Amino acid sequence: MRRILHWLQSFIPVPTTVNQLERVRACSGALVGILLTGLTTRWILGESVSWPLLVAPMGASAVLLFALPSSPLAQPWSIIGGNFISAAAGVTCAMWIPDPILAASLAIALAIAAMFTLRCVHPPSGAVALTAVLGGPAIHAQGYHFLLAPIGINSLLLLGVALLFNNLTRHRYPHSNHPVRENTHQTADAPPWDRLGFTPADLEYVVQHHNEILDISRDDLESLLLQTEMHAYRRRLGEITCGDIMSRDVVTVEFGTGLQEGWELIHRHKVKALPVIDRCRRVIGIVTLLDFMRHEDLDAYDNFAFKLRQFLRPLMRSHSDKPEVIGQIMSRKVHTATDSMHIVELVPLLSEFGHHHIPIVDHERRLVGIISNSDLVAGLYRGRLADIQNIK
Fold first, then answer.
1. How many C-beta atoms lie closer than 10 Å to residue 244's C-beta?
2. pLDDT at 112 > cutoff 60
3. How far apart are CA 330 and CA 381, in angstroms?
4. Residue closest to 57 by CA, chosen among 36, 29, 86
5. 130/110 Cα distance (integer angstroms)
6. From CA 237, how far away is CA 345, in angstroms rounded?
7. Contact, 329 vs 294, CB < 8 A?
8. Average pLDDT, the chain
């Protein structure tokens, strides 16, 4: 009896983690998608056609496209390829097999085989194959025109609405299944974030040997696993924030600071990066030693001192192609972190993106500190020591 009860409990679904706003977004998307698809199809074909302007499988497609837009089963090629192939399989079986039950069964089997082969598995497409077989004389009279109207028109219109609606509501669509991470070190070694823990190759190996379709993209699965690792680190290290380990006495420059003054600040204070701020102390860029070295062939050591003096010396001209101020050589794309952020969240910024200094800002985006690689190492070491002491 206990085993039976345990087995019956497996039928109970786990609670959904989707909040109310996301539920409203999905419902609104399906409403708009089906409404526009139906109205546009009626406008294109007119009301005099004998077949339905909307086919039932589009309702199932709407669930995937608006409620599960990141699913591999909801991507553009899945809905277009899956629906067209399944419609073709259904029409063919309906034309050549008199028994509707046998024709429907074979149409579903052929549709699934074709979708596997062409990598466009889309569950509602099975219903498209059934509709082609069991849809009645009006649909049978269409023959292969059924692929274009209503299947082709419905599929393309619903996909168009999904592309627009999902991106307007900040859901990336189509959802890429091939994440690419750049190795900023440009060596044969694996990137730092792949040297410990699992790698994309490890995940690929496990997924392939799982031998079952997963209703989640691999980049989402990898992201969830990485976030789980991050959460575990935070739990073990305790709440050590960026504000706890950052350097607060930050040497800064402004856009109009001269190159000579910026270079002298770097050497006088023995720092390797200067945040560039505006008058409200909001970060607009960062300048590093590398930014200086990129210009005037300074990375070549021949006559380095002479070339450096020439580069830093202002020309005193109204028009010149030569950079004169920090704002002309700074890196405008700068990653920042908040003072309340946990230090573990800095690891991807400092390793994956190759940064060595992260400006820290408050809730008003004003600069309050800076963290370097050594600051992060010290913070992680401190957290590890605390963890060991708690264990003891």
1. 14
2. yes
3. 32
4. 86
5. 12
6. 12
7. yes
8. 84
Where do runs of H (alpha helix) occur along the chain? Answer: 2-9, 20-45, 57-62, 76-96, 100-118, 124-134, 137-142, 153-168, 192-195, 200-210, 218-237, 242-245, 259-268, 289-293, 304-312, 347-351, 373-391
Q: What is the CA radius of gyration of the chain?
A: 30
User: Which of 106, 107, 72, 85 is CA-nearest to residue 212?
Assistant: 72
pLDDT in tens, 256-295: 998 889 888 988 988 889 999 999 999 999 998 888 777 6
Instruction: Give the integer Cα–Cα distance in Å for 175 and 219.
Output: 9
- In which element (H, E) is residue 246 found? none
The pLDDT of 319-337, averaged and rounded, is: 83
In the chain, the amino acid numbered 286 is I
Residue 216's nearest CA partner among 69, 7, 365, 319 is 69
The full DSSP string for 306-359 is HHHHHHHS----SS-SS--BGGGTSBS----EETTSBGGGGHHHHHTS--SEEE
Q: What is the pLDDT of residues 334-390, one digit of tens each?
A: 889 999 988 878 877 776 666 788 999 998 889 999 998 888 777 776 665 455 455
| Nearest alpha carbon to residue 336 among 380, 277, 381 | 277
Task: Please state, in angstroms and rounded to a whole number, the distance separating the CA atoms of residues 355 and 288.
Answer: 11
Cα angle: 230, vertex 235, 238; to 5 degrees = 110
Task: Using alpha carbons, select from 150, 151, 152, 147 the residue that is nearest to residue 53.
Answer: 150
pTM for the structure as a whole? 0.69
Q: Which residues of 272-304 are buried (b: 16+ CB within 10 A; e: fewer)?
A: ebbbbbeeebebebbbbbebbbeeeebeeeeee
Please tell me the predicted confidence (pLDDT) of residue 60: 96
Residue owning tokens 């709407």: 62
CA distance 357 to 373: 7
183 CB-near residues (< 8 Å, 6+ apart): 190, 191
